[in-house]
């Protein structure tokens, strides 16, 4: 009976695992970006602001609603004064068009903010994807090193049995292996953390777990799939890209649009000083029995008046504040532009450094280290060196491979950071400068 119960539990576990696995969707970087743009809840929330801004234009263009007026005199006045039934309508002077222009300017500002949110989301997905692939690559490296350490332990055990090395070699190999196991475990946790961060960025409400393709870093650095140019090119000079970059940056466009909003808001506030017109009209009548002549008298009436005359209050504080808001927006624009130049410069230097480091790893460090570790392993097997030297060499090699992975991740991330600062995901490098792109 117990056996059947355990079999049933095992069956349910396998079913749950299968269902969970069905919800995991492996994607390339471009697919991950598309998934985020389609499903991200924060982006959907931001896009609603556009519809709100459009409705605000309609609201700003509204006409004032009319009022229904009725006058019915009683007592002595009712025997001599006419009864009236009519409408009154307030007409705004030079205000409705200004409000509509302000609402239109706000719509443009909202659209630019949504575009910026969308662009930032794409860059965030890039970084999260790169970090996930890097974490997987490091885990893969650690697992490979663990396998090599297990092989080293077997070699040490065989040589110890053959009395060619002391038992301490076996103990050293076991300690190194146990240390490697803890590092593999830590690397697995880092992969899970990166996967969670990646899905947090995509923010899909349908419980789909997106996962990167495996080992992209180790497949001869597939730059096309990572949407990154290869490092073997001459990057343009800073002066060639800064003007274009400043023109593309969303934060500068937003700051400029904020000036336009502030200008139009000042116009709206200033025009509050213009009086409005109130028109009244209707029908007045008096029954014949109430007239001395005994005749029925009736007829239309009309009138007009100026309302909201800025006599006791002329809106000076509001106008002064609107003027200060405009000055503030202009200062903010200059500040954003100055900071943008520095941000682009820092991203430019960071990317050039990442290119240099990656090329140095690929051309010098990794290749020489692979040859050195092979020589050290053969030397130990042949009894030409001790196990301590080999373990130290393996640890150094592991550090180099992990460092290379970080250098590669930094190269991809620095390119993403460069795109983020120039605000151009399709930044074009001159074709003659790039080999093989």
What are the defining features of this structure?
two-stranded parallel ribbon; alpha+beta; four-stranded antiparallel β-sheet; elongated
Summary of the model, kept short:
This protein is of the alpha+beta class and 437 residues long.
Q: Can you characterise this structure?
A:
Helices cover 66% and strands 10% of the residues. The protein contains 9 helices and 6 strands, in the order αβααββααβααββαα. The N terminus and C terminus are likely disordered. It is elongated. 22% of the residues are buried. It is α+β, with helices and mostly antiparallel strands.
Topology:
Layout (H helix, E strand, L loop, with lengths): L1 H21 L1 E4 L1 H11 L1 H20 L6 E5 L11 E9 L4 H66 L6 H35 L6 E4 L25 H11 L1 H21 L5 E11 L10 E11 L8 H66 L5 H36 L15
Helix pairs in contact: 2-4, 3-4, 4-5, 4-7, 4-9, 6-8, 7-8, 8-9
Number-wise, the strands total 6
The number of helical elements comes to: 9
Helix-strand category: alpha+beta
Distance between the termini: 65 Å
- What characteristic shape results from the CA principal axes? elongated
Portion of residues in beta strands equals 5-15%
Helix content: 55-70%
Major sheet characteristics? 4 strands, antiparallel
Mean pLDDT: 83
Which strand order do you get reading across the main beta sheet?
2-3-5-6
* SSE order: HEHHEEHHEHHEEHH
Low-confidence stretches: 2-21, 430-437
Radius of gyration: 38 Å
